[in-house]
Amino acid sequence: MIRRLLPFFILSFLFSCVTQDKSREHELIAHAGGEIDGYVYTNSLEALQLAAERGYKYIELDLLMTEDSVLVAAHSWEEFNSMTGNSHRGDSAMLSEQFVGQQIHGRYTPLTACMINEFFMKDTALYLVTDKISDPEVLRQYFPDLKQRMVVEAFSYEHYERLVDEGYFRVLYSCMADDFSTAITKNLLFASLFPGERIEWIALHTSGFDYPIYDVLNSMCRFNIALFTVDNYNELSHRQLERVQMIYTNRLLPE
Predict the structure, then answer these.
(1) Does 13 map to a domain?
(2) Alpha-carbon distance 199 to 11, whole Å?
């Protein structure tokens, strides 16, 4: 009986080792600065500092413009207003002077682009991952010396191509882009027939795995996936984990 079951135990052991190895291969991205004291989406200075201490190499921050056109970190104005006790403002943007005077959940410090740039310039082992804004001119203005350590989620193929041409470390073409279907058809499936940069990376929501189109695309032309947002490896099948290179997470910790 033991002899008959031995192959099963060996296969089970090997499968568990492969699964563990796969989890180590993924590059984890601290989503919106990462979790702090049970809070997520804070995009705060304290969350940024904690993510670096925990060993994250990639830290994502959401970027928005204030009412007076200053770049700051917030997931949305509605969420920021809620987190800072200003729910009555709804989704209205603040002036930059008002923004820096707020406290997130009564204890955390909001981040301006200037603060973000200073933090990443001091710690050269970290990579800044951006969301919401992908305009090359805006990113160049606020982060002039971080290009080689920036992972940018692009929200149009025009931005994707310009960012790649300008030499950003990694550019993720967003599944939320308005021109997503057209762009992947031209520049992924039929890249040889159209001018422009081939799409190498796609920022994909976990629900995207439910659509057969991604399996079809993968069978025809390989591309890399940065998946958002996963807080437990058990949320994905082994096959899905094999397809992912980067994972946005609030709670998964680097090995």
Answers:
(1) no
(2) 37
CATH of residue 91 = 3.20.20.190
Is the per-residue pLDDT at 82 higher than 90?
yes
Name the CA radius of gyration of the chain, rounded: 20
Residue range of the domain that includes 77: 27-249
d(CA 167, CA 205) in angstroms, rounded, equals 25
CA 15, CA 121: separation in Å to the nearest integer?
41
Nearest to 197 by CA among 218, 227, 153, 166: 166
Contact 73, 43 (CB under 8 A): yes
Lowest mean pLDDT among 55-69, 85-99, 206-220: 206-220
Q: What is the pLDDT of residues 9-59, one digit of tens each?
A: 333 333 333 333 444 478 999 999 999 999 999 999 999 999 999 999 999
CA 164 to CA 194: how far, in whole Å?
17
Predicted confidence band of residue 188 (pLDDT cuts 50, 70, 90): confident
> Does some domain include residue 104?
yes
Distance from first CA to last CA of the chain, Å, rounded?
38
Alpha helices in 109-156 (DSSP H): 113-122, 136-142
Res 208 pLDDT > 90: no
The DSSP call for residue 54 is: T
Whether the Cβ atoms of residue 120 and residue 128 lie closer than 8 Å to each other: yes
Number of structural domains in the chain: 1
